[in-house]
Specification:
Blueprint lengths: L22 H5 L5 E3 L4 H13 L4 E5 L6 H7 L2 E5 H7 L5 H9 L5 E5 L5 E5 L2 E5 L13 H14 L4 H15 L12 H12 L1
Parallel strand pairs: 1-2, 2-3, 3-4
Antiparallel strand pairs: 4-5, 5-6
Length: 200
C-alpha cells in the first residue's frame, strides 16, 4: 500500500496460487511490513530484509504452517487469532499464552478474540481491549484484515500499544456494517469518532 492508503502493487492470481515476489522491489518505499504467514519462505525473506532496513514487521496468523515459528521469531509484533494462540501456547490462561508467545521472539503480541475484543502484551504491560459494539452487523468477512491493517497504521503513527489495539478494534467493528471487505473499510475520521464515543 502507498502512504496515502491507495494500493500500490497487486499480485494477480487466485487465492492460494503461488506468487513470484521480488522482495527488494516489494519493500521499496515501505515504512512497515505486514505479513500473514501464508507463504512462509517468501515472507521470511521479506521479514529479514525489512529487519535489516529497520522496518517494523507485523505478522498476523490465523493458522500455523511449516515455517510459522521462524516468522514469529522475525516479527516485531504478532497478531494471532485465539485459535492460533491456543496452538502456540495450549496451556493456561490468555495472559500465560501471551508470555509464552513473547518468548518465541516478537516484542509484542495481540490475541484477537472476535466479539470479545482482544488482549495484548508489550513488555510487562498487558492490555485488554473490549470489542466495540456493532448493532448493525452485515458481514464479518474481512474484519480481521481490517484489524491488522488499522493496527499497522497506528504503529506507523507511533502511537502507544494500547491505543494501536483500540483503533484496530474500532476499525474492525466499523467494517462489519457493509458487505465485503473493501466496501466495509472505514475511514480514519469514523474510526476516531467511534473511539471518542467510548470515552464519552
Amino acid at each position: 500500500m502507498a502512504g496515502d492508503g491507495s494500493q500500490r502493487t497487486r499480485y494477480a492470481g487466485d487465492r492460494g496460487e503461488p506468487v513470484s515476489v521480488d522482495v527488494t522491489s516489494a519493500l521499496d518505499g515501505a515504512a512497515a511490513v505486514l505479513i500473514d504467514g501464508s507463504a512462509p519462505i517468501d515472507q521470511q525473506r521479506i521479514a529479514e530484509l525489512a529487519k535489516s532496513r529497520k522496518l517494523p514487521v507485523i505478522l498476523d496468523i490465523d493458522e500455523l504452517r511449516d515455517g510459522t515459528s521462524e516468522l514469529i521469531a522475525a516479527a516485531d509484533v504478532l497478531i494471532a487469532s485465539e485459535r492460533a494462540a491456543s496452538e502456540l501456547a495450549p496451556r493456561g490462561e490468555l495472559t500465560d499464552a501471551l508470555e509464552e508467545i513473547l518468548a518465541l521472539g516478537p516484542r509484542a503480541v495481540v490475541i484477537t478474540l472476535g466479539a470479545k475484543g482482544s488482549i495484548g502484551r508489550h513488555g510487562e504491560h498487558v492490555v485488554r481491549c473490549p470489542a466495540f459494539p456493532c448493532d448493525d452487523v452485515l458481514d464479518t468477512y474481512g474484519a480481521g484484515s481490517v484489524f491488522h491493517g488499522a493496527f499497522a497504521a497506528a504503529v506507523l503513527s507511533e502511537l502507544p500499544f494500547a491505543r494501536c489495539m483500540e483503533l484496530a478494534s474500532a476499525a474492525a467493528s466499523l467494517s462489519l456494517r457493509e458487505l465485503g471487505p473493501w466496501a466495509g473499510l472505514p475511514n480514519r475520521d469514523d474510526v476516531l469518532a467511534l473511539v471518542r464515543s467510548r470515552r464519552g
